[in-house]
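ASSEMBLY PREDICTION REQUEST
Request ID: AP-0331
Submitted by: J.K., bench scientist
Number of chains: two
Total residues: 593
Priority: normal
Notes: Please return the full assembly, not individual chains.
Input sequences:
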Amino acid sequence: MNFNPIFLSLRLAATVAIILSALALPLAYWLAFTRWRGKFLLESVVALPLVLPPTVLGFYALILLGPRGTIGKLAQNIFGHPLAFTFTGLVLASLLYSLPFAVQPLMNSFELLDRRLLDASAVLGANPLRTFHKVILPLSWPGLLSALVLSFAHTLGEFGVVLMVGGNLPGITRTASINIYDRVQAMDYSGAHTMSLLLLAISFVVLAIVYAVNRRVWSPWPSR
Amino acid sequence: MSSTPTLSVNIDKLFRSQDSSDFRLQINLQFSPGFTVLFGPSGAGKSTILDCIAGIQVPDSGRISLVDQVFFDSESKIICPPQRRRIAYVFQSLALFPHLTVEQNVSYGLFDANSADRSDCVERHLRAFHITELKRRKPRELSGGEKQRVALARSLATDPQLLLLDEPLTGLDAKLRAAILQDLREWNETKRIPILYVTHNREELDAIGERVIAIAQGNVVGSGIAHDVLDAPQSLPIAQAAGFENFLTVTVEELRSADGIMQVILLPSTCELEIPLGAAQVGDKLQVAIRAGDILLATEHPRFISARNVLPGTVESLETRGTLVVVNVNAGVRFVVHVTPGAVRSLELQTGMTVWLVLKTHSCHIVSS
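STATUS: Completed
Returned structure:
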């Protein structure tokens, strides 16, 4: 049994989860604390991947990352090849695809923070960056963990976007979900079973961690 | 002393609401070093005033300055952010950082100091507020009084030029409150900074007992020493907040300027009352506030008595609250009267009994609504 597709999926999911959490922090912070009335527009854009068919997202990503797309042309100049059908291309498309799964948990935990704690920090002389570092972040780590884990799990299970942007290149873009599809097509049901069971188990463990943390099954930090 | 820090606050801020009841905060106040109490009912705008001084909220227009530092000036468009105002602000919720220990909370504002100065300053403030032994604890492991001490120590450790306190001692018993206030007074003996203390609690006000500014519905409605402002309240919300229990509506029947009184009719009954002369015309409707403890009860019609108002009524209920009995008397209008349990026993007060209410003229305070 070739487990490369599983390792590729895990590598993709981990890369996307880490990059995305870093990108989502400032975005969620801005969305949670801005007084701009038009913020609902940006909120809608962030939530789009939740409702769009992955093929639509994948199609636009393919256009964008391909040899005629803006990003594809840029990559052509830098790397000498466009990004479609590469691992980097998969990462970029997945960042878009899993964006709401990183932004929303962070935004929720920022919005639940007691605003008076932020006021207290400011009155005690801290600028917004210090307040973020010393108060907001330490008190939002369940949200950050949710963001990491949910974007990891969501990327792990994606199919349509990968197929559109990455195709099905062994070792480069053939992820576990695509591999399962291949095996079913080839009537290799036992192989599909093994792969599916592995994905199911990983997803369950990952989600169990998120729920345990958010329900505070164990409580290693002070209650609020 | 020209170096005396003086806070000058001129704020105009309109809060629009969905229904038509917009709230407008409009005040112009000066504060000198030492305690000033901002007193008034909930929703009067007291906390908003503190928020504006601290820079957490921004007024629509006005000017806020402390000695020569301008915090806010709508004309020259100056808005100094809160972190540059060097103010200490203790919120009603205290807002201790739940993830930090007592020691870390107190040192939070000292990030500019070197580590030796910082730990020295933290030690001093932990000692001054008697919380040294708690320094390794998290806020959730503290009692209410301990949290309040930590919040004060954290604010004062930053060497502020102004201290804002928003009901910081609410919920403490009188002894603990007095002890914390004493610590605060001692701290301010050397600093001599203005301390603005917001409360709607009459007991807390009495414990501080200094200059009072009464605020109702976004406006200043009285100022002076506590006794003057609260025992002769000028407005209905202040009388309510100051603990007056009886509010009567009367119409003016006759003015007797020579005696300094006026004759009024208690609505909706036809009882006559004599109250102090106020700026009113015959036929005007007025609100009168009377403390439940200023009303006497008699079981027979009293004669040979200096009090001018004697009203018959029926006891509707008796309710013991600690060392106080609250008696509800119906005299056409419902009165609340406070008496001692001993008085209830010697008068053999019971529900349904006929009694006479005795009101001194000067226990009746005219308040504007």
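REVIEWER COMMENTS: Residues 28 and 99 of chain A are 11 Å apart (CA to CA).
SIGN-OFF: pending second reviewer
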